[in-house]
Amino acid sequence: MDMDFLSVVDAKKEEIIQLADTVWDNAETAFKEYRSSAALIAYLKKNDFEIEKNIGGLPTAFIATWGTGHPEIGFIAEYDAISDLSQIEGIAEQKKDPARVHGHACGHHLYCAGAVAAALAVQAYLKKSGKKGSVKVLGCPGEEGSFGKAYMARTGIFRSLDAAMGGHPGCMWAVRTRPSLACCSILYKFDGRASHAGATPHLGRSALDAVELMNVAVNFLREHIPYDNRVHYAITDAGGNAPNVVQPHAEVMYMMRANDNAALNSLCKRVHKCAEGAAHATETTFSSDFHSACSNIITIPTLQKNLYKAMASLPLPVPDEEDVAFGKELAKTIVDRDDKEPLYPGELLPLPDVITPHFGSTDTGDVSWNCPTVQMHVGSWITGTPGHSWQTVAQGKTNYAHNAMLYAGKALALAAAQLFEDPQLLAQAKKEHFEKTGGIYEPAMPPDVMPHL
Ligand SMILES: [Zn+2]
Ligand SMILES: [Zn+2]
Fold first, then answer.
1. How far, in Å, from the CA of 87 to the mean position of ligand 1?
2. Residue 363 Cα, ligand 1 centroid: separation in angstroms?
3. What are phi and psi of 235, to 5 degrees?
4. What is the rounded distance in angstroms from the CA atom of residue 129 to the CA atom of residue 122?
């Protein structure tokens, strides 16, 4: 295939980098990405994309489309930052940036600008080849814990896509082959009766006791749940600071994960019984507030192989002298970093023969239940960089990170072009998708749960 269309990424390089830097500078957290989404929308509009805003009741979600009809390929763009992780860029010591509160510790500024680069290249490909079809940028806010894509998925917006692709920053060059777990968070609120803890404890009913008992019950439950289930909790309201009061109100946030949405549902029911038992024992009452949920990821081997082929046919970015000097200094700040590893991820990892499980979760799962989906691990950081750390924020604007983003844009576009060239690939991807989902999407998120804006 003639790969000339990829040159548009080089031609618009400065603008794409500027776009990523703007999102980095704004560092807005989940569902508050007003300036970031506006910057992405403005740039896509300027490049003749049509914009649909406010998807699934999320003011910062958007879909940008160029072209008409099928095949319809979408590039996932995330742009939310991590709360309170402000950090000055380009320095190898932890130091809050006085200009901002939050920080792009998951590299979503590179994720979204890389998606834009890919979309521009596919636009160039479609113009040049005269092929039928359309390309979209899926503007997905609130990935971090808020699961924005699950709300967007309700509208059926991902359903019409023939394929969705994304490139998430990380410490390696690889196609993502591991599925992720379905996940949900539910807030449990207990109410009892306040009383003087010394004089009249028998008149009090402690909501804090209920929270503690619920946690104890869940910790015993752990032994009897499938090995790939996960339960985490945080006491978000312990009732107050006074130990001489029987606490009348207390809250605990639960997060559950399981292999798929059905397994998650049965885990949640069992955790709920622990809350019932705790309330019964303490003579308190409780309510539960379902916060958010995302589905597990459906993996599509055909799309993985296709993306791998595209990645392998492009040269990986090479760090320059400045990147190496900075990387070396930064490496000293990373505890337990394996010094035998190369400083920057230097090679494309082959597709594994055996898929190992992954115990994290992402709302890309809700895209993947609706259309064949594939993701790339973009080797944006020095090896060993912990996720969601100040070190990722510090690396957000380096030459190397920018070049990694441009490479991701090109590789995603090349993989997409291959799907336009060979309809057999898409047919096979759809077949694999149907085999795994039966064409039915039952979201992990109940239909009455609204986004916590
Ligand atoms: Zn993250
Ligand atoms: Zn992320």
1. 16
2. 11
3. -80, 105
4. 10
3-state secondary structure 260-315: CHHHHHHHHHHHHHHHHHHHHHHCCEEEEEEEEEECCCCCCHHHHHHHHHHHHCCC
Quote the DSSP letter at residue 84. Answer: T
Q: Which ligand is nearest to the CA of 85?
A: 1
Q: Which residues sit with Cβ closer than 5 angstroms to ligand 2, an ion? A: 106
Question: Rounded to the nearest whole angstrom, what is the distance from the C-alpha of residue 367 to the centroid of ligand 1?
Answer: 17
What is residue 453's predicted lDDT score, i.e. its pLDDT?
A: 85
Sheet of 50-53, strand order: 50-53, 62-68, 133-140, 72-78, 163-170, 373-379, 174-175
Confidence band for 344, pLDDT divided at 50, 70 and 90: very high
Eight-class DSSP state of 37? H
pLDDT in tens, 90-108: 999 999 999 999 999 999 9
Domain 4-178+296-437: CATH architecture, name and number where available: 3-Layer(aba) Sandwich (3.40)
Ligand nearest to the CA of 144: 1
3-class SS letters over 166-235: EEEEECCEEECCCCCCEEEEEEEEEECECEECCCCHHHCECHHHHHHHHHHHHHHHHHHCCCCCEEEEEE
Q: 229: CA distance to ligand 2 center in Å? A: 22
Mean pLDDT taken over the chain:
97
> Nearest bound ligand to CA 388?
1
Where do the structural domains in the chain lie, given as residue ranges? 4-178+296-437, 182-294
The stretch 379-387 carries a mean pLDDT of: 97
**182-294 maps to CATH 3.30.70.360:** yes
